Amino acid sequence: MRVLVVEDEQLLADAVATGLRREAMAVDVVYDGAAALERIAVNDYDVIVLDRDLPVVHGDDVCRKVVELGMPTRVLMLTASGDVSDRVEGLEIGADDYLPKPFAFSELTARVRALGRRTTVALPPVLERAGIKLDPNRREVFREGREVQLAPKEFAVLEVLMRSEGAVVSAEQLLEKAWDENTDPFTNVVRVTVMTLRRKLGEPPVIVTVPGSGYRI
């Protein structure tokens, strides 16, 4: 899952980004609304964690732009105000969910994951395919009942492949969904991660390489 965090309090923004990355999400961070508009113009995000009171371009205007463009991206709006009227106004603008500050990080993560499931065809919270069971909320993976310990990027790649439901996923798509914008597009990190993931999942291999196209399960 790829997430954009837009928050002008830099310490908070960086802390949220760090926490979401530990949950195997690819996260980009910006600190004002204008930078957010630049990012959404060039990158596809599953979820935007959007502070409402942003400098340069207000968070409301960023949200309106997402709606105007007809993007499948879901918006989780953050605000220091907990008034019901503010929450209603944010949802009427086009936000998909609303979370007042201060918030528990576990709740933020759960809401981001729930919104991420709504950017595509609805899938069950626990994914199962080819003898593999993946639980994004618990960060657990089992193969034929055996728990498999994965690093965050390995987990992220496996989740993307599982969500594709047998469709081929290109290396470029994996790079876009599992890594942030600072990753070198010419790196071999996808190939190396897939190799490590295959080894950890064990025999017989379940990740198939489709020459010239990508990978599938």
Secondary structure layout:
Layout: E1 2-6, H1 10-22, E2 26-30, H2 33-42, E3 47-51, H3 59-68, E4 74-79, H4 84-93, E5 97-100, H5 105-117, E6 127-129, E7 132-135, E8 140-143, E9 146-147, H6 152-163, H7 171-178, H8 189-201, E10 208-210, E11 214-216
Parallel strand pairs: 1-2, 1-3, 3-4, 4-5
Antiparallel strand pairs: 6-7, 7-8, 8-9, 10-11
Helix pairs in contact: 2-3, 6-8
Shape: elongated
What's the alpha carbon Rg, rounded to whole Å? 18 Å
Catalogue the unreliable spans: none
Largest sheet data: 5 strands, parallel
The quaternary structure here is single chain
What is the count of β-strands? Answer: 11
Reading the helices and strands in chain order gives: EHEHEHEHEHEEEEHHHEE
- Strand percent estimate: 15-25%
What does the average pLDDT come to? 90
Q: Report the helical percentage.
A: 40-55%
Number of helices: 8
Q: What is the CATH T-level topology of the largest domain?
A: Rossmann fold
**Overall CATH architecture of the largest domain:** 3-Layer(aba) Sandwich
Instruction: Count structural domains.
Output: 2
The named CATH superfamily of the largest domain: Response regulator
State the strand order across the main sheet. Answer: 2-1-3-4-5
Domain Response regulatory: 2-116
InterPro entries: CheY-like_superfamily (IPR011006), OmpR/PhoB-type_DNA-bd (IPR001867), Sig_transdc_resp-reg_receiver (IPR001789), WalR-like (IPR039420), WH-like_DNA-bd_sf (IPR036388)
Protein name: Transcriptional regulatory protein CutR
Modified residues (4-aspartylphosphate): 51
